Amino acid sequence: MNRRWTERSFIGVVMRFIVLVLIGMLATSLVADHCTAMAVHELLGWAAAAAKPASDVARSIIDYFKVRQQSVREVERARLAKKQAETLLEKSKFETAKAAELNQSALENKLERALHEKKAALSAADVNDARLQETRREQEMMQLDLQKKKSDIEAMYLSKIQEQTDRIRAETDSKVNLYRLLTLLVLGFASYLFYRLHHLQRRNHATLLAPDLVKTGPRYITRTGHVTTPQTGGDTGNAAMKSNGKAEPAIAAAS
Fold it and tell me: Is 0.85 surpassed by the pTM of this model?
């Protein structure tokens, strides 16, 4: 029992030692990797910080040389343009002096001719101005005449239109009155015809009810239905009149 326990304890101790060694190696490698990464990061940052001013300085130097070269070229161009302008100025001065010496008389003649032409143009302008004023006056007179004629024509047309309007209104009033009279006549004639037709219809109706009215003369029909004559005054009629006290004509009974 003691021997087995001793072997197990020894194996356990060895295994614990190996595990601790492995854990230590792993921790050492992790710490070393972290330190290495931090160092590399700092080194790269320092290199970038050191390289940026150098690149800025190099770029500024290049820009300076470019600007200087461009300014030198512009100065050379300005000098060349100045020389050309000076040569052209000298040439123009020489040509002007030569032309002035050679053509002074011609210039004087041209000036005199220009003065004469100017005087002639001024006189022509005065004449044209006078003609223009006269033309304006004529136009104003014509415009006044046209306005007067226009007003006369408008008044004439207005009077004619008023006359035609009055005539048309009178004709219209007469026609309206005639139409009214004709309408009244037609309505009266129609009323008369209606009345006559109604009267004839009543007579025809009464004749159908009493066909012997023409032969025997007027008869009376009482409310009980008995027929009497005013001349004879029969017993039947008297009895009916005595019983009712009233008698109606045949025509009225028919209606």
Answer: no
Question: If you search the block for the tokens 């009376």, which residue do you land on?
Answer: 220
For residue 221, what are the β-bridge partners? 227, 248
Q: Is residue 160 part of a domain?
A: no
pLDDT tens-digit profile of 78-98?
888 888 888 888 887 888 777
Q: Which two tokens stand for residue 87?
A: 């040569």
Segment 41-60 mean pLDDT: 58
DSSP class of residue 103 equals S
What b/e string do you get for 163-181 counting C-beta neighbours within 10 Å, with b at 16 or more? Answer: eeeeeeeeeeeeeeeeeee
As a whole number of Å, the CA-based R_g of the chain is: 73
Nearest to 217 by CA among 202, 227, 205: 227
pLDDT tens by residue, 234-246: 444 444 444 444 4
Number of domains in the chain: 1
pLDDT band at 189 (very low <50, low <70, confident <90, very high): very high
Considering the domain boundaries, does residue 235 fall inside one? yes
Domain extent at residue 241:
213-255
Q: Which residues contact 80 (CB under 8 A, 6 or more apart)?
A: none
